[in-house]
């Protein structure tokens, strides 16, 4: 198991494209760590730079007590699983699993025994003589994992390994992958653009944009208290409500109504301060009856999500959403009242999009 320490890590490609911008990051020993962000944010470049497949322009990479910034990929003791699995089509499953051991000079008998043991652990015993073309996507993914596990690396690097699977297989693979990592205890860095995967799998998440980390925290911290509107927009299966508002004393004037300023910010922001109110639909109460400190609007859209329904309400020209149980959904055109659950409304600066807070720590 290995700690990863990145200091001032920068990667600039030809044409002066900065993919990584002076990153400082420590990933703890045995941690399952997710790099999350949209396409082009630098997450895969960061993974490849840790692996040694890309050379850092400047900065340092330490794996445990070793500075590996200029060490070749083959000498870093890491195992990487790619999005397309990168299996050798002409080799059997057994030979694919054992190939890294062959490169290390192990005998055919030794690597065969090791490949059989790992294949059995991952439910591949009956497939060992098949070639990749005869396997399903989920089976190919397990072969790629088995090849990584067989090396007994000090570090796993996963580059969107679940993205080629269908929805059901992806859910099964998520659980399998988390169990496997827990059993092996190997430090793992997992790249994904799927926030649901990151929230489900990771011990901590780094949300990236344009080569920088916009927020670092546990899944609960990142979901409940996004550090800025970029993260608020990116995290969550239903987008966070982000509505322009203005401070009016101890209230926030928003969408034709008034909501109380969060307790920790009461008296801090001058009257007239422009802000953005953030409320997750999951934390918004919807009622047909008038409620104190609520905003009022007309139901515009209903989106069925299974056990819940996402209700979008037109509040004085602003679209505000709430989730309700499937048996409690209103009808389109109904007049309803919306109010945030206590402690669940956030305020962001209108100019910089950063969370406004007067104290640190996780308030979740």
UniProtKB/TrEMBL annotation:
Keywords: ATP-binding, Cell membrane, Membrane, Nucleotide-binding, Translocase, Transport. PROSITE patterns: ABC_TRANSPORTER_1, ABC_TRANSPORTER_2. Residues 4-235 form the ABC transporter domain. GO terms for molecular function: ABC-type transporter activity; ATP binding; ATP hydrolysis activity. The keyword Protein biosynthesis does not apply. One of its GO terms (cellular component) is ATP-binding cassette (ABC) transporter complex, substrate-binding subunit-containing. It holds the Pfam family ABC_tran. SUPFAM superfamilies: MOP-like, P-loop containing nucleoside triphosphate hydrolases. Residues 324-344 are annotated as: Disordered. This is Carbohydrate ABC transporter ATP-binding protein (CUT1 family). It comes from Stackebrandtia endophytica.
């Amino acid at each position: 198991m290995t700690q990863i320490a990145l200091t001032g890590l920068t990667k600039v490609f030809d044409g002066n494209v900065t993919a990584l911008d002076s990153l400082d990051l420590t990933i703890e020993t045995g941690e399952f760590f997710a790099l999350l962000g949209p396409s082009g944010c630098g997450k895969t470049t960061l993974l490849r730079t840790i692996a040694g497949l890309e050379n850092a322009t400047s900065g340092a990479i330490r794996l445990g007590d070793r500075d590996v910034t200029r060490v070749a990929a083959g000498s870093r003791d890491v195992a990487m699983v790619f999005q397309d699995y990168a299996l050798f089509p002409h080799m059997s499953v057994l030979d694919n699993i054992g190939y890294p051991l062959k490169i290390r000079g192990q005998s055919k008998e030794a690597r065969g025994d090791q490949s059989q043991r790992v294949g059995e652990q991952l439910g591949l015993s009956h497939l060992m003589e098949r070639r990749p073309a005869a396997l399903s996507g989920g089976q190919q993914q397990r072969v790629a994992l088995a090849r990584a596990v067989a090396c007994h690396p000090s570090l796993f690097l996963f580059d969107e390994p679940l993205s080629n699977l269908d929805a059901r297989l992806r859910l099964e693979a998520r659980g399998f992958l988390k169990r496997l990592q827990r059993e092996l205890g190997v430090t793992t860095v997992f790249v994904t653009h799927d926030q649901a995967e990151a929230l489900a799998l990771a011990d901590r998440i780094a949300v990236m944009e344009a080569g920088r980390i916009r927020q670092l925290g546990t899944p609960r911290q990142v979901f409940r208290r996004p550090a800025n509107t970029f993260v608020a927009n990116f995290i969550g299966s239903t987008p966070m409500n982000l509505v322009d508002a203005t401070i009016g004393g101890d209230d926030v004037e928003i969408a034709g109504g008034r909501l109380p300023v969060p307790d920790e910010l009461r008296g801090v922001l001058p009257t007239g301060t422009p802000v953005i109110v953030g409320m997750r639909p999951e934390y918004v109460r919807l009622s047909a009856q008038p409620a104190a400190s609520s905003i009022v609007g007309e139901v515009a859209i209903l989106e069925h999500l299974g056990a819940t329904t996402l209700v979008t309400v037109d509040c004085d020209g602003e679209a505000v959403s709430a989730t309700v149980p499937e048996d409690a959904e209103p009808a389109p055109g109904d007049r309803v009242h919306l109010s945030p659950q206590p402690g669940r409304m956030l305020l962001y600066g209108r100019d910089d999009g950063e969370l406004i807070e007067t104290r640190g720590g996780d308030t979740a």
